[in-house]
Amino acid sequence: MTKLTLPTVHLNGTSRKMLADGYFAAYRKLQDAIRSFGEIEHNARDYYVQGPGAWPQAAEQRVQMREHLNAVQKYLEAHLIHLGE
After folding, report:
1. Cα–chain-centroid distance for residue 67?
2. Among positive and negative, which fits the CA dihedral 23, 28, 34, 40?
3. Can you give the pLDDT at residue 84?
4. Buried b or exposed e, range 31-43, using 16+ CB within 10 angstroms
5. How much is the average pLDDT of 9-14?
6. Disulfide engineering: 80 pairs with which of 9, 51, 59, 85, CB 3.0-4.6 Å?
7. 80 with 19: CB under 8 angstroms?
8. Residue with more model confidence, 14 or 2
9. In angstroms, rounded to a whole number, what is the distance separating the alpha carbons of residues 69 and 10?
10. H helix or E strand, kind and range, residue 62
């Protein structure tokens, strides 16, 4: 990930609390989404009729989607750390 541009808390901007509350709410909901994503049934028997390459491709795509979720999680965590939460 490239270096994040984090918000600067100042008198003419959004309050630290409002920023932190927003990022924390998103973080909590993302944790629910990650948990739900992991609970989705994902089995080769649902792909074999598409041919031998379908399951490996579906499995790799699932890994990639989990990596995207992890990247969003790290993004939110960096903001929360920056904001002192």
Report:
1. 8
2. negative
3. 93
4. eeeeeeeeeeeee
5. 97
6. 85
7. no
8. 14
9. 30
10. helix 54-82
The two tokens of residue 60 are 């790799």
Identify which of 32, 11, 7 has the alpha carbon closest to the alpha carbon of residue 83. Answer: 7
Burial of 81 per CB tally in 10 Å (0-12, 13-18, 19+): exposed
The tens digit of pLDDT for each residue in 39-50 reads 999 999 999 999
CB-based contact 23:83 (threshold 8 Å): yes
Cβ 4 vs Cβ 78: under 8 Å: yes
Joined tokens for residue 11: 């008198």
Residues 59-79: pLDDT tens digits? 999 999 999 999 999 999 999
Q: Which tokens is 45 given?
A: 């028997």
DSSP string, 30-60: HHHHHHHHHHS---GGGTGGG-TTHHHHHHH
